Prior knowledge:
Strand content: under 5%
Radius of gyration: 16 Å
CATH topology: Four Helix Bundle (Hemerythrin (Met), subunit A)
Number of domains: 1
Amino acid sequence: MIMKGKNWLIISAxxxxxxxALRAVGGIALLAKGNQLDTEVPIIASDMQIxxxxxxxxxIGILFVYASTNLVRKYSKKCWNLCWIVLLLFxxxxxxxxxxxxxxxxxxxxxINLTVAILVGLFLFLGKSALKTEK
Length: 135
């Protein structure tokens, strides 16, 4: 059985919603606990850096949910492009967050981020045929 394009877009949207929710919750937890948040590598960031990263995580989480829900509501090229932009921001913010919080941009978390982005990107690409043509 071959899956149709819309199914691939729905799968990518579900993954993006889950990742977005996790990002937002992570941002809230970081904002609430600051340096006391239990992580594998100790957080070395200042209070202001923690605040900025927390807000960034919440914004990325909201953007993930917004982009993915609009994609499955409208199936438009614009929404599809927004999903790609959010994925790119997700990866860039992961690098920045790693540097600000832990002093190293590349860690195990960033490898997971890259894997998720590749997977979602693959599903977006496979679902491209289901996009509505814009007039």
